[in-house]
Amino acid sequence: GENVEQHPSTLSVQEGDSAVIKCTYSDSASNYFPWYKQELGKRPQLIIDIRSNVGEKKDQRIAVTLNKTAKHFSLHITETQPEDSAVYFCAASLYIPTFGRGTSLIVHP
Amino acid sequence: EAGVTQFPSHSVIEKGQTVTLRCDPISGHDNLYWYRRVMGKEIKFLLHFVKESKQDESGMPNNRFLAERTGGTYSTLKVQPAELEDSGVYFCASSRMTGGYGYTFGSGTRLTVV
After folding, report:
1. In what order do the strands lie in the sheet with A4-7?
2. C-alpha–C-alpha distance, residues B66 and B63, integer Å
């Protein structure tokens, strides 16, 4: 089955810095890669996703890149703000998404 | 539209007791999924319903876990008897499509077995 590795487990940045979270997956058949943000005590919510026929997608301060050959994808957040503090999960999916372990992002004011 | 609703939000039970978690999906979402996250680990798939049928239950840890979705609406996940290692946050998600698209998660049930 699919295996998703996510790094780092914790990421601490200063407000205004950039943050990058990286994931690798094992099943080359996976074709959909969503990213979820879970704020403390709330539900995981989709923030951006990318399909395997696209290499990069951007939405304001967040972007996702996908390298199908290397089987890795990354989330980039620019100009971080304290409200970006949350746990971020990557996932790889063909049928049922397989999630990574999550990255706890802390943005210090 | 109303979101995915889970209750209880928290449950603390003793080892050996029974607990039943409930999930109400978004109306019209045929696909319903149960996941579990143990502290610091991945959100791990447990099972998938399409309407009232179990499409994939490959992630269910053992036969102490029983999921049902009678009538294809809400779903329950019963743990009987509960063990310490069952502690974690149990998430439910629903979607119209398969493939991971359009997932909406509930807020989860935090289960603590003591």
Report:
1. A4-7, A19-25, A72-77, A62-67, A56-59
2. 7
Q: Measured between beta carbons, which residues in chain A are less than 8 angstroms from residue B43? A: 44, 89, 99, 102
**Cβ B43 vs Cβ B111: under 8 Å:** no
> What is the residue type of B75?
S
Of residues B21, B37, B35, the one with CA closest to residue B77: B21
Of B41, B42, B106, the CB nearest to A43: B106
* Rounded-to-integer distance, Cα B89 and Cα A92, Å: 21
- Nearest by CB to B99, from A32, A44, A89: name it: A32
Determine whether the interchain pair A32/B101 forms a contact, defined as Cβ–Cβ distance below 8 Å: yes
**CB-nearest partner of B100 from A42, A45, A97:** A97
pLDDT in tens, chain A (109 residues): 899 999 999 999 999 999 999 999 999 999 999 999 999 989 999 999 999 988 999 999 999 999 999 999 999 999 999 999 999 999 999 989 999 999 999 999 9
- Which chain B residue has its CA at the smallest distance from A91's CA? B100
Render chain B in DSSP notation, one character per residue: ----EEE-SEEEE-TT--EEEEEE--TT--EEEEEEE-TTS-EEEEEEEETTEEEE-TT--STTEEEE-GGGS-EEEEESS--GGG-EEEEEEEESSSTTTT-EE---EEEEE-
- Per the CB < 8 A criterion, the answer to whether B36 and B90 are in contact is yes
Owner of token pair 């951006």? A48
